[in-house]
Automatic annotation (TrEMBL):
Identification of the protein by name: Noc2p family-domain-containing protein
Listed Basic and acidic residues bias regions: 12-27, 37-52, 718-743
Family: Belongs to the NOC2 family.
Keyword Nucleus included in the entry's annotation: yes
Organism: Podospora fimiseda
Any Pfam family matching the protein: Noc2
C-alpha cells in the first residue's frame, strides 16, 4: 500500500513538472518523423525514377569506409547523385552499434529532444515555419531536387531520342508532367483536412487518389460544365480544391493570347462563353472562399487584419498571390467597362490578405493608379480604381500609405500632361478625389506634400536663376499648373475651419499654405506677358479656392490690375473672326489671338470675373470699405484713361462691365458702413470683429447678389459653347469620313495627304519659332 501511494505521489509530481514538456517533445518528434517519412517516400520515388531511366545500379567495389572524394568518376556517376554525409560513414557508426538497445533508444531520444528544442526556437523566431508546408522560399532547393529531371532535360531527350520520349509519354506520362501550379498543390492537402469531407469519409489516400483522377491533364479544353461544377462546389461548401482549379483556369484566361512554349498553360480556352464564365466565377467566388477559410478580423482600434501566422494562411498564400497576379494581368487586357469595374471591385476584399506581400502590393498599386490616371478610362473605372486606393489608405500601415500617396501624385502628374476639352473633366475628377487621400494620415500627408511643394519651388528657382531661352518651360507647362492646383485642392479639403472643428485640432497641413501661395505667386509672375495671361488666370483660380476654404487673405487684386494696365489692353484692338479663346483649357494664348478684340474681350471678362470672386470673399468683412478703396480708385483711373481714346478704338463692352463692377463694390462698401455704424464694440475686440455679419449669407450682400447672377449667365454661356463645340466636332468627323471615302477611290491620295501634312507641320514649326522669338524679346 505504501508503495502504491509513493508511486501515485511520484506520478503527480512528474505530471506537474515534466509531463507538459514531454508531450510537446513528442509532438515535435512526431512531426519530424512525419517529415522524414515524406522525405523517404520522395527519395524512394526518385530512386525508382533513376532506376527506370538509367537501369539498375551496378555493384561497386567501393569500401564502406571510403569517402566521396576517394570514389572513381564512374562509381560516382553510377551512384545516382546521392549526397554522402561524412557524419554517417566510417567509425562514427561503431559506438552506436556497440551500445545496448535501451541505451541506443535513450540516446536517440535525447538527440531528438535536443533537435526538437532547437526547432521550437526556430519556429518562434521564424513564425512557425516548421508547421507550414507551404513556405517555398525556405525550401526551394530541396523541392527542386525532389522534382527529378528538369523540363529542359526532357526537351533535350525528345530531340535526341524521340522514340524513347514517345514511350515515356504513353507508359509514364507523370514523368513528363511539369506542372507550373506546384505552389498550389498544397491546397489539395489542406482541403482534404477541412470540412469539405463527406459524412462517410474515405481514407485519405483514396481521397487523394480520387482527386488526382478528377484533375484534368495538361492542355485540356476548359468547358462550361467544369466551370459550373467548380462554381457550385465553391458556393455550397467553399471548396478549396475547386478554388485551386478555378485560380489555375483564371490564370490561363489571363494569359489567353500569349504563346509560351516553356510554360504551357493547364487549360486551353476557345469558347468566349467559357472565358466569360471563368472570369465571373473567379472574381465573385474566390474572395468568398478566402473569407470563409481566412476571415478578415477587426481589432478594437478599428484596424483590419488577417492572421498570417497560421498554417492555413501560409498554405493559401500561393493561391492568393497567383489569383492577384492574374487579376493584374487581366486588367491590362480588358476594355469593357462593366467587366473592368467587376475586376477592380474584386480587389477590395483581397487587400487585407495582400498586406504581407509588399512586392505584389506595389505592383497592384501601380496598376490601379494607371487606370485611375489614364485619360482613356471612363469615369466609372476611375472611381472604382480610386475606391481601391482609398481602401488601402484605410487598412494599411505607413509604408503602404506612403507608396499609395506617391504613386497617386505621380499618376496625377503623368495623367495631366495632355489637357483639352476631352480630358479636363477627368483631370478635375482626379484632383478632387486624390485630395481626400492626404487626410487619412496627416503627418504622412504633410511629409509628402512638403516634399512635392519643395520640388515645385526648386523648379521655379532654377527657372529664375538659369535665365535661358527654355528655362521657363520647366514651370510653364500643364503638369506644373495642375500640380499647383492639386495642392490647392488638398489644403482646401483638409484645412477648412469646419474640418478643424470636427477634428478638434488644427490641421498639420495648414503650415503648407504659406509656401504654396509663395510658389504660386512666383510662377504667375515669372513671365508677365500677354502670351501667358491664361496661365495667370488658372493659378489665380487655385488661390481663390484656397482663400475661400481656409479663410486666408491672399493679395490677388494687384495681379489682376497688372493685366488691365498691360500694353495688350491699352493698345487699340484689331478686328478678327477668331472664336473666343477657352481660358480653362489653355495656359498659353496662340500668337494669332494677340492684340485682337476677341482676346481683349476674353481677358476683360476673366479680370471682371476674378475680381468679383475675390471681393465677394470679403463682402461681409467689417473692413471691406477700406479694403476695396485702392482697387476702386485704380479701376476708375483705368476707365477714365480709356474714355480719352478715340471712339472707334474704345472697347465699350469691357468698359461698361468694369463700370458695373465698380458700382457693385461701392454699393457693398456702403452696405457695410451702414451695418458697422450700429455696432458697440471697438476694433481691438477681435472676437466681435470676426463675428461681424457671420450669420448673414454672402449672397444677400449687394456684391454677392451680383456674383450669383454673373455665375448663372456664365454657366448658360458655357453650356451653349459646349453644345456648339460638340456640333462642330460631329460635323468635322462627318466631313473627314466623307473625305476619307473619297480619297479611297482616288489613286495617290495617301501621298498627297502626307505632303499636305508635312507642309502644315512646317508652317506650325515656323509659327512656333516666331512665337518663341517674340517671347524672348518681351521677356528681355
Amino acid at each position: 500500500m505504501a508503495v502504491s501511494k509513493k508511486n501515485a505521489k511520484a506520478t503527480k509530481k512528474f505530471e506537474q513538472k515534466h509531463l507538459k514538456g514531454v508531450l510537446e517533445r513528442r509532438k515535435v518528434t512526431a512531426k519530424i518523423k512525419q517529415k522524414q517519412q515524406i522525405k523517404d517516400k520522395k527519395q524512394a520515388k526518385r530512386a525508382q525514377d533513376n532506376e527506370f531511366f538509367k537501369g539498375p545500379n551496378k555493384p561497386t567495389n567501393k569500401k564502406p569506409g571510403t569517402k566521396g572524394t576517394e570514389m572513381s568518376v564512374d562509381d560516382f556517376f553510377q551512384g545516382g547523385f546521392e549526397i554522402i554525409d561524412g557524419a554517417k560513414i566510417g567509425d562514427s557508426s561503431k559506438p552506436a552499434a556497440s551500445l545496448g538497445k535501451r541505451k541506443r533508444e535513450s540516446k536517440a531520444q535525447e538527440e531528438t529532444s535536443d533537435q526538437s528544442d532547437s526547432e521550437l526556437e526556430i519556429s518562434e523566431e521564424e513564425e512557425d515555419i516548421i508547421d507550414s508546408d507551404s513556405d517555398g522560399e525556405a525550401e526551394n532547393s530541396d523541392e527542386e531536387e525532389d522534382l527529378g529531371m528538369s523540363k529542359s532535360a526532357m526537351e533535350a531527350l525528345a530531340e535526341k531520342d524521340p522514340e524513347f520520349y514517345k514511350f515515356l509519354k504513353e507508359n509514364d506520362p507523370e514523368a513528363l508532367d511539369f506542372d507550373e501550379n506546384a505552389s498550389l498543390d498544397e491546397v489539395d492537402e489542406l482541403s482534404g483536412s477541412e470540412a469539405e469531407q463527406d459524412e462517410d469519409e474515405q481514407p485519405k489516400k483514396k481521397k487523394q487518389k480520387k482527386g488526382k483522377e478528377e484533375e484534368p491533364a495538361d492542355d485540356s479544353e476548359l468547358t462550361q460544365a467544369m466551370v459550373a461544377k467548380w462554381k457550385a462546389s465553391m458556393a455550397e461548401t467553399y471548396s478549396l480544391r475547386a478554388a485551386k482549379q478555378t485560380v489555375i483556369a483564371f490564370r490561363c484566361a489571363a494569359h489567353l493570347n500569349e504563346d509560351d512554349d516553356e510554360n504551357p498553360q493547364r487549360y486551353t480556352i476557345t469558347n468566349p462563353n467559357v472565358f466569360h464564365d471563368i472570369l465571373i466565377t473567379a472574381l465573385k467566388h474566390i474572395p468568398e472562399v478566402l473569407e470563409h477559410h481566412l476571415p478578415v478580423k477587426e481589432s478594437a482600434a478599428g484596424k483590419v487584419y488577417v492572421q498570417t501566422e497560421t498554417k492555413k494562411f501560409k498554405t493559401l498564400s500561393g493561391l492568393i498571390k497567383s489569383y492577384t497576379a492574374s487579376i493584374i494581368r487581366m486588367l491590362g487586357t480588358l476594355s469593357d467597362d462593366p467587366t473592368l469595374k467587376l475586376t477592380l471591385n474584386a480587389l477590395n476584399p483581397l487587400l487585407p490578405y495582400l498586406l504581407s506581400f509588399r512586392k505584389l502590393l506595389k505592383m497592384l498599386i501601380k496598376t490601379v493608379v494607371a487606370f485611375w490616371s489614364q485619360p482613356a478610362s471612363s469615369e466609372t473605372a476611375r472611381i472604382t480604381a480610386f475606391l481601391v486606393l482609398r481602401r488601402l489608405m484605410v487598412i494599411a500601415d505607413k509604408g503602404v500609405r506612403e507608396s499609395v500617396l506617391k504613386a497617386t501624385y505621380q499618376g496625377l502628374v503623368n495623367g495631366s500632361r495632355l489637357t483639352n476639352h476631352n480630358t479636363i473633366a477627368g483631370i478635375n475628377l482626379m484632383k478632387n478625389s486624390a485630395a481626400e487621400l492626404w487626410g487619412f494620415d496627416q503627418s504622412l500627408g504633410y511629409t509628402t506634400a512638403f516634399a512635392s511643394i519643395r520640388q515645385l519651388a526648386i523648379h521655379l528657382r532654377n527657372s529664375i536663376v538659369n535665365n535661358k531661352n527654355d528655362s521657363f518651360r520647366a514651370v510653364y507647362n500643364w503638369q506644373y499648373v495642375h500640380s499647383l492646383d492639386f495642392w490647392s485642392c488638398v489644403l482646401s479639403e483638409h484645412c477648412s475651419p469646419l474640418k478643424e472643428a470636427e477634428a478638434g485640432k488644427e490641421s498639420q497641413l495648414k503650415l503648407l499654405i504659406y509656401p504654396l501661395v509663395q510658389v504660386t505667386l512666383g510662377a504667375m509672375r515669372l513671365i508677365p506677358t500677354a502670351l501667358y495671361f491664361p496661365l495667370r488666370f488658372q493659378v489665380i483660380r487655385s488661390l481663390l479656392r484656397l482663400s475661400r476654404a481656409t479663410d486666408t487673405y491672399i493679395p490677388l487684386a494687384s495681379a489682376l490690375l497688372e493685366v488691365l494696365n498691360s500694353a495688350e489692353m491699352k493698345k487699340p484692338p484689331k478686328q478678327s473672326t477668331l472664336k473666343p479663346l477657352d481660358f480653362l483649357t489653355n495656359y498659353k494664348a496662340p500668337k494669332s489671338y494677340l492684340r485682337t478684340r476677341v482676346f481683349q474681350d476674353g481677358v476683360g471678362e476673366q479680370v471682371i470675373e476674378l475680381l468679383s470672386e475675390f471681393f465677394v470673399l470679403w463682402a461681409r468683412n467689417i473692413a471691406f470699405p477700406e479694403f476695396s478703396l485702392p482697387v476702386v480708385i485704380n479701376l476708375k483711373r483705368w476707365l477714365k484713361e480709356s474714355r480719352k481714346k478715340s471712339t472707334g478704338n474704345q472697347n465699350n463692352k469691357l468698359a461698361s462691365n468694369l463700370m458695373l463692377l465698380v458700382q457693385k463694390i461701392e454699393a457693398n462698401a456702403k452696405f457695410i458702413e451702414d451695418k458697422r455704424s450700429k455696432v458697440d464694440f471697438a476694433p481691438k475686440d477681435r472676437a466681435q470683429v470676426d463675428a461681424f455679419l457671420k450669420d448673414l449669407e454672402w449672397a444677400k450682400t449687394p456684391l454677392g447678389a451680383f456674383v450669383v447672377g454673373q455665375r448663372k449667365l456664365r454657366e448658360q454661356a458655357r453650356k451653349m459653347m459646349e453644345e456648339a463645340r460638340k456640333d462642330d466636332e460631329r460635323k468635322r468627323k462627318e466631313d473627314e469620313e466623307e473625305a476619307k471615302a473619297g480619297r479611297d477611290d482616288e489613286e495617290g491620295g495617301d501621298s498627297d495627304e502626307e505632303m499636305g501634312s508635312d507642309e502644315e507641320e512646317e508652317e506650325e514649326q515656323e509659327d512656333k519659332e516666331e512665337s518663341e522669338d517674340e517671347e524672348e524679346e518681351e521677356s528681355e
